[in-house]
Amino acid sequence: MIEIYLMTEEHKQWKKTISFAETCSWKAGPFLAKKMAENGFKEWERVCAVCVNGEVAGFSTFAEKDELSEQYDFTPFIGFVFVDEQYRGRRLSEMMIQSIISYAKELSYEKVYIMSGEIGLYEKYGFVKLGDYGTVYDSIDQLFVKTIKGASRDLELLNHLDKLHTTELGVVRIKRNLSIDTNDVVAWCKDKINSAHAIITKRGKNWYVAVDGLVITVNAHSYTIITAHKEKR
């Protein structure tokens, strides 16, 4: 029997997955095990475990960042995809990826990313290569993206555009970051957020609106436009 779990540290398979990762044949396994032991994950992030007949057979993660260099704003990421050698050939990696994508859709993400050195693997799952990008390890790796079909925009923010406001410092910060010249920064941001091609995601206490090469950050409680900046490519 094959079972897929999207876990936080309270899950019954959390410690089993730590033990499995510590001793697996992949050199990144102990790094993930340490991160799990320290619970180094945000509230919405997950560790995915695939179990065969009750035994952990592989793992992956769903997180805000992976190995991509901090200068890039792509998010979220599927990472640490690994299946033990004896269980390969059963499409377990694909099962984990599809489970994570379903969860990402629930969080209103419209795209997910993967970094990998594999050629021709993730394309089979519908990912498209964006290019070669720098990593936090001062190396170069491939960046792949998959658009989530049926993902919906976050209507809560769109339905309350009249509540949007910012501070005097916010006006200065946004004008400086975007190099714009407008007398009404809030109205300018509203137009961008209401754009048909804006991608709105909610993570933690903020909404993040990606549109026209920039990202607008809005506090989900107060509807304050905190900042906006150009996407780094």
Structure report:
- This protein is an alpha+beta fold.
- It has 6 helices and 11 strands.
- It has helices at 14-23, 29-37, 92-106, 155-158, 168-178, 185-193; strands spanning 2-7, 46-52, 55-63, 77-83, 111-116, 128-134, 140-147, 199-203, 206-211, 214-219, 225-230.
- Strands 1-2-3-4-5-7-6 form a 7-stranded mixed sheet, sandwiched between helices. It has a 4-stranded antiparallel sheet with strand order 8-9-10-11.
- Helix 1 runs antiparallel to helix 2 (29-37).
- The longest helix has 15 residues, at 92-106.
- It starts with a strand and ends with a strand.
Q: What is the 3D shape?
A: elongated
The amount of beta strand, in percent, is 25-35%
The total of helices stands at: 6
- Quaternary structure: single chain
Derived structural class = alpha+beta
Provide the residue-averaged pLDDT: 90
Q: Let me know the number of strands.
A: 11
